[in-house]
């Protein structure tokens, strides 16, 4: 394995990445992707992918892509131009391609402007006490499990639950639907993988039907009983944008409620479980943070840098261009590797050291026009959770390494067993 810090020349062998990708998907790679990111970075800044396109491993090159106007997200028009256009026709992929994250200007600009800053200071201040109360309830449950069994699963008891309660209460979704939403979200996500198999796409298609039924019904219910809430505001706004075309407004309202909900769930849950794992596996770290609560936001950011909940994201070149010395033809797809970028030693020295006071840089929330809309909410959830958890369970520690879902794009901790 090449040491951290050694950036070798660019490989032209399209199969060179295959062993690293296999390792990334393996149990070992999911448990510790850091060596895989190093291997990929050692192959070059811009590494050819077997199916055409490139993986991008360096911080600056990834940043340039995310922020550059000449890089676009793979939308319907791009998919239709592909020689493998059939690959993109399954219902789950098509559903995701209509969402904000797969739209380019001018449609993307229009929808983003309409949403504005969803979680501005005032909104977060109003949400804070409710999230804090939910954190306390979930920690009561964790406590009960610990008393009963001497061990509890942080991921399922707390990590998975806080994000759905947060976004669910913000949108006014009744609590009894939360288990169903979590369930179809975990199944739908296969369609967003890099190379989903046919059977994975079938699972996603079924989940998509359930997701569509749920959110369509949810919007219809709110239409029937509008109030002074976020969704009622969106209904008024989009009805005014599409006068006389209720179906177009409803489509937009479904896309927004569905996507914002599912975008907030696994990502935030992974952040929470990662942060608890990274802090409690070294008791001195958790102890230090408990004594220095003013650094809790730094700890959250270091967890985001160290192990980003999303492994990669894709863009395509709007025109012929050159990236880190590599000529890239128009329409070529590039995969931004967030973890490799965050561990680029040229941006974050000693990148594999988890250092709460590092004040490092990361691309975990993306960048540019598509920069994550939920960053401040995710950070708030993590801050409130860690603050209370460290106060309440000073000796909390893992009893085993976490287990992970076998994914290439969305990382997910399925279990994190803890004790006191
Ligand atoms: C730790 C938690 C989270 C992580 C790591 C994360 C990460 C990301 C990333 C990487 C992107 C794509 C950025 C790009 O393409 O440049 C994104 C987009 C997005 N995220 Fe998040 N996210 C998180 C939480 C949330 C939450 C809580 C919400 C909403 C409540 C949310 C809503 C969105 C939306 C709507 C987009 C699409 C923005 C666009 O394409 O214009 N995310 N997120």
From TrEMBL:
SUPFAM superfamilies: Cytochrome P450 (SSF48264). Keywords: Heme, Iron, Metal-binding, Monooxygenase, Oxidoreductase. It comes from the Bacteria. InterPro entries: Cyt_P450 (IPR001128), Cyt_P450_B (IPR002397), Cyt_P450_CS (IPR017972), Cyt_P450_sf (IPR036396). Pfam families: p450. Belongs to the cytochrome P450 family. This is Cytochrome P450. It comes from Streptomyces musisoli. The lineage of its organism: Bacteria, Bacillati, Actinomycetota, Actinomycetes, Kitasatosporales.
């Amino acid at each position: 394995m090449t040491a951290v810090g050694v950036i070798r020349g660019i490989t032209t062998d399209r199969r060179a990445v295959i062993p690293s990708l296999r390792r990334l998907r393996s149990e070992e790679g999911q448990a510790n992707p850091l060596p895989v990111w190093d291997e990929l970075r050692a192959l070059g800044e811009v590494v050819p992918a077997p199916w055409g396109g490139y993986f991008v491993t360096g911080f600056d090159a990834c940043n340039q892509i995310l922020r550059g106007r000449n890089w676009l997200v793979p939308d319907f028009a791009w998919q239709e131009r592909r020689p493998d256009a059939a690959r993109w026709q399954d219902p789950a992929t098509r559903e995701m391609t209509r969402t904000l994250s797969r739209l380019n200007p001018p449609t993307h600009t229009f929808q983003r402007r309409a949403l504005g800053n969803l979680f501005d200071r005032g909104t977060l201040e109003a949400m804070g006490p409710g999230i804090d109360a939910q954190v306390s309830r979930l920690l009561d449950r964790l406590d009960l499990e610990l008393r009963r069994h001497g061990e509890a699963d942080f991921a399922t008891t707390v990590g998975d639950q806080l994000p759905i309660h947060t976004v669910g209460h913000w949108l006014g979704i009744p609590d009894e639907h939360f288990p169903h939403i979590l369930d179809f979200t975990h199944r739908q996500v296969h369609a967003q993988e890099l190379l989903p198999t046919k059977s994975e796409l079938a699972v996603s298609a079924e989940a998509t039907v359930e997701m569509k039924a749920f959110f369509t019904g949810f919007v219809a219910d709110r239409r029937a009983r509008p109030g002074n809430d976020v969704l009622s505001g969106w209904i008024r706004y989009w009805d005014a944008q599409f006068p006389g075309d209720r179906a177009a407004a409803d489509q937009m309202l479904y896309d927004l409620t569905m996507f914002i909900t599912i975008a907030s769930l696994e990502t935030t849950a992974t952040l929470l479980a990662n942060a608890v794992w990274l802090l409690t596996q070294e008791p001195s770290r958790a102890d230090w943070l408990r004594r220095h609560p003013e650094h809790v936001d730094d700890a959250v950011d270091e967890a985001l840098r160290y192990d980003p909940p999303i492994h990669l994201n894709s863009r395509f070149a709007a025109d012929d261009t050159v990236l880190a010395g590599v000529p890239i033809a128009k329409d070529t797809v590039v995969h931004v590797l967030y973890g490799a970028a965050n561990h680029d030693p040229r941006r974050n020295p000693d990148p594999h050291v988890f250092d709460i006071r590092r004040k490092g840089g990361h691309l975990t929330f993306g960048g540019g026009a598509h920069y994550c809309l939920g960053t401040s909410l995710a950070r708030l959830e993590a801050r409130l959770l860690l603050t209370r958890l460290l106060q309440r369970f000073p000796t909390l520690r893992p009893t085993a390494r976490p287990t992970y879902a076998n994914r290439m794009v969305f990382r997910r901790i399925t279990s994190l067993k803890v004790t006191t």
